[in-house]
From TrEMBL:
<feature type="compositionally biased region" description="Basic and acidic residues">
    <location>
        <begin position="1"/>
        <end position="19"/>
    </location>
</feature>
<feature type="coiled-coil region">
    <location>
        <begin position="73"/>
        <end position="107"/>
    </location>
</feature>
<feature type="region of interest" description="Disordered">
    <location>
        <begin position="1"/>
        <end position="22"/>
    </location>
</feature>
<protein>
    <submittedName>
        <fullName>Uncharacterized protein</fullName>
    </submittedName>
</protein>
<keyword id="KW-0175">Coiled coil</keyword>
Length: 168
């Protein structure tokens, strides 16, 4: 609030004089009028004289305290706390990823089971096992057949059939 304005306290209502300025406050009335400066200073010497009337010259070194040394332990403790918080965040993320991985694996197993049921009907794994066993037995039986003699005999017949188809 400026000196030329009325305060908003309600005590100065309608106390304006003819010049339309507010009356001096209680604090201004108790201050030595020689110490009140309403305008700037004309020179550096006038400023120093004004400071001397207020109580002398105060050196900056007397008023400024030396900065407190920063203990590295506080910085390290703060960094350690930050790292702990970050580690907890990473653990929480890892937990979420593990739960999602379990869900994906479980859903893939359900999908494979449903697909097998759709293709093979009831007891699809038993039917797959029977088909694998039959394939194994047939393969072992084929290995014992004399294919050398059969291939030598069948080869000219196969080549003749191919030549006839290509000639058409």
């Amino acid at each position: 609030m400026f000196k030329d304005e009325l305060g908003d306290t309600g005590t100065n209502k309608d106390m304006r004089d003819g010049v339309e300025t507010a009356p001096a406050s209680f604090e201004e009335a108790s201050i030595n009028p020689d110490l009140i400066r309403r305008e700037g200073f004309a020179s550096e010497a006038e400023y120093r004289a004004y400071i001397a009337t207020l109580g002398g010259h105060a050196s900056v070194g007397d008023t400024v305290e030396e900065p407190l040394p920063i203990y590295d332990g506080h910085v390290l403790e703060g960094r350690l706390q930050e790292l702990r918080v970050e580690l907890e965040n990473l653990r929480a993320r890892l937990h979420v990823i593990q739960r999602q991985a379990r869900t994906v694996v479980a859903e893939n197993v359900r999908w494979a089971d449903a697909s097998a049921h759709a293709q093979l009907g009831n007891q699809p794994w038993l039917k797959l096992a029977g088909a694998m066993a039959a394939t194994f037995i047939v393969t072992r039986g084929i290995r014992h057949l004399p294919f050398g003699t059969a291939a030598t005999t069948a080869m000219p017949l196969i080549l003749t059939a191919m030549n006839r188809k290509l000639a058409r």
